[in-house]
Write a structure and sequence with these properties.
CATH topology: TIM Barrel
Number of strands: 9
Largest sheet: 6 strands, parallel
Number of domains: 1
Distance between the termini: 35 Å
Number of helices: 9
Low-confidence stretches: 1-20
Radius of gyration: 16 Å
Bound molecules: zinc ion
Structural class: alpha/beta
CATH superfamily: Glycoside hydrolase/deacetylase
CATH architecture: Alpha-Beta Barrel
């Protein structure tokens, strides 16, 4: 599966950053003394509980962006995430490329994701499109559905390495106040077992967060409504 981080690269330089009303967010607000750790693509019967245990052990809180199709298969894991003090948002219903898809397709995917999340008691505020492909159609459809689109400022690229230290170092390079960090509690759309690499990188990531005088909070806490 090809991972296309199109808009992340885009986010470094395009006028998208300056779109009126902040159509898309890459980081928290200026002056924050915290970061948000986020996990995409779950829930996964093995990965999600393992990530939750490690977050507990390290005293970190995080925000999960589950895929509605996976939530339908494992609804109990969403309750587990919430019960352990984390936040749950939405990664859409189907994990498909948005590039080339029209507003109607995206709007339908978002609406059905909201419905599935509602069935497990979650009313998402944030939406992260598959592969970070925040196209114009995506941004418009998300806003019409009352969601705020969020990407990330720092990521592990866990699918590209088997070394947790590389994942931690990559995140550390761009980690500072108001960072939004992307990791995964699944390997469904990357490389087999990649969540284990991200999981093993968590202690080092926690250490960097603490060393830089920051805290790990949920996305809602990092960016109050
Ligand atoms: Zn994803």
């Amino acid at each position: 599966m090809q991972y296309v981080p199109s808009t992340v690269a885009l986010g470094q330089w395009t006028p998208l950053r300056a779109l009126p009303g902040g159509l898309c967010r890459w980081r928290g607000r200026r002056g924050a003394d915290a970061v948000a750790l986020t996990f995409d693509d779950g829930p996964h019967p093995e990965a999600t509980p393992a990530v939750l245990d490690e977050l507990d052990r390290l005293g970190l809180r995080a925000t999960f962006f589950p895929l509605a199709s996976a939530v339908e298969a494992h609804p109990g894991l969403v309750h587990e995430i919430l019960g352990r003090g984390h936040e749950v948002e939405t990664h859409g219903h189907r994990h498909l490329h948005h590039l080339g898809k029209g507003p109607r397709w995206v709007a339908h995917d978002i609406r059905s994701a909201i419905e599935v999340m509602g069935s497990v008691g979650v009313r998402p505020r944030w939406y992260r499109p598959s592969y970070g492909q925040a196209t114009a159609a995506t941004l418009v459809a998300a806003r019409a559905a009352g969601l705020e689109t969020v990407l990330w400022s720092s990521w592990g690229r866990e699918w590209a390495t088997e070394r947790p230290d590389e994942v931690a170092a990559r995140i550390a390079r761009r980690l500072g106040p108001a960072s939004i960090v992307l990791l995964h509690d699944s390997d469904a759309f990357g490389s087999p077992g990649m969540w284990r690499v991200g999981l093993a990188a968590l202690p080092a990531i926690a250490e960097v967060i603490a060393r830089r005088g920051l805290r790990a909070v949920t996305l809602d806490e990092l960016v109050p409504a």
